[in-house]
Amino acid sequence: MTWANRLKMTAGILIVLLLVAAFTVVFNQRQQRVLSTSATIVAESYPVGTDYGGIVTRQYVEVGDEVAVGDPLFDVRSLHLQRDIASGQVADPALAAGVSADGTSTIAATVDGTVREIAVPQGGFAQAGGMLATVDENASLFVEAEFQLSARDYARIDEGNDVELLLPNQAVLPGAVVGIEVTTVDGQALSTVRIESAELSNKRATGMFQAGTPVQATLQLRQDGPLAGVGDAVRDLLRKVGL
Fold first, then answer.
1. Does the UniProt entry include the keyword Membrane (predicted)?
2. For residue 60, what is the domain's CATH number?
3. What digits encode the pLDDT tens for the residues 125-164?
4. What angle do CA 101, 105, 109 make, to 5 degrees?
């Protein structure tokens, strides 16, 4: 073998190695799984309010208590309600449904759940139409996670994509994307993703499975084929040279 042929063979090997290295970089840059920048367990929450302003004369529950539909939460005594009852503006059926003639109404839970917040404790004044408390509904837990992605990778998030949820106790729950919202900052897609898991949604909103618990979400992006990264790189190059 002549020196010229040896040089050609060596050059060919180097070119192949460079191409392999370049393709490896492209493939590595194209993410398949992404970690959330933040993720939190969230529950469907329901405000507890009153139509008539008045003094909270009795508080039946505390934060963290579990309640069922119809359970009493507060008694609120309202002079305005008392006047409406006296003038006949409040129908008799209302008097039989937790409203007394002295203007005291019993506010009851409308969902099964856990009391997350007490806004007006016993002795406080509740505004008409204001919130007394918040109840997190049972069997409504989901995860809200944020991801920072390139515009191209954002396009690879679809409803139904698989997600792994890592809890503080290191347990892993399977989940899936059910909703996506996005804002764009400096060419990056800041995506807020709603993730639901059958193993999470059937839990009561207590302990580790309560609203506000931080988790880590790992999102599986859509697979566009083994050569998708190469195609993206070629298109980027063509755009840069104006083709």
1. yes
2. 2.40.50.100
3. 999 999 999 999 988 899 999 999 887 888 899 999 999 9
4. 155
